[in-house]
Amino acid sequence: MRLTTAGESHGKGLFAIIEGLPAGLTVDLDEINDCLRLRQSGYCRGARQKIESDCVEILTGVRNLKTLGSPVTLAVWNKDYENWKAYMAAEGCDESARTLTKVRPGHADLSGVKKYNHEDARTVLERASARETAVRVAAGTVCRQLLRALGVEITGYVKSVGKTEDEGAYKFDEIKSGRRALLGMMSAACENAAKAEIDAAQEAGDTLGGVLELRVKGLKSGFGSYVSYHEKLDARLVGALMSVQAIKGAEVGLGFEAAKHAGSEVHDEIFYTERAGFYRETNRAGGIEGGMSNGEELVLRAAMKPIPTLMKGLATVDYLTKEPARAATERSDVTAITACEIILESVLATELCAVVLERLGGDHMDEIIERYRRLPQ
Ligand code: EPS
Fold first, then answer.
1. What is the CATH number of domain 2-374?
2. Residue 7: in which H helix or E strand, if any?
């Protein structure tokens, strides 16, 4: 299975082609649109979210809400295109308006203009923008629906915002039902503290990032590989998380913390009873050993950097004049941490779906469900 996305932030829309999905998968449009709504939510999002009400349109590969086995094309149209077509239209437009040459530190602007020999960083930021994640959420939700048919579920929550960190440990089902509405954190006290931090950042014309924790329940052992380095499950899933705009770090299980402890404090001892089979009492490995799932819950975390468009503007240089300048200030979010949570769940679903289909093969969902059922726990 392979996902390709296309589209610009202020172009006509965002598009995804998912190739290699089996036939017979029931697509739940309401769930896709709920996830798109979640991606637009969160405290202190930018003004763009007031313009858009993202909604998926399926263009190909589905008939009567069931996949056909042919490529599935999804579209999320940009309402804002109406306001931008004079500067963005493929058919001809005025490129001289809305140029951006005061390249923003932390964004793709400077490396992008140099790489493609552009004069205007607008041409770069249009594709580099995290708006692209709208269609990745739509595609990821289709993949989530395939995984759910096998009994594999994904959830996650916002673990920290700026310096406000939730040190609590939560069970999968608690997370699914317990995320708070404002930011997607688990604790009311943390949400209040985080809100105060976000307010202060906004006041200062600044931005904030945070840490997200993701969980996958119901994945049987043996997905991924210990024989081929490029098929290692941890490498693939961490790679998927790192593919999201603004993610600067990702870890599995104890992650970086494991390096501070002795082996006896890190590895999950193995037990066996006839009733339970092989089992562990801890899951510090985050469900992955030797590049393969081990049947325990997958636990991953990712760190989102603060969005690089700051209202107060950072020191930079104008790309054309070479004069010192303050970086351009497009409208932006103070934080997009809540959106990032559903985005990460979606990219995880997409990569995991690809891994599962590579191992199981099959043209129709029935075959895939049957093959998965026969695998050992
Ligand atoms: C985003 C839409 C964008 C930005 C944001 C994410 O819309 P606009 O550029 O029209 O304001 O709000 O992207 C960034 C902050 C960024 O740096 O890329 C969205 O729909 O998520």
1. 3.60.150.10
2. strand 2-7
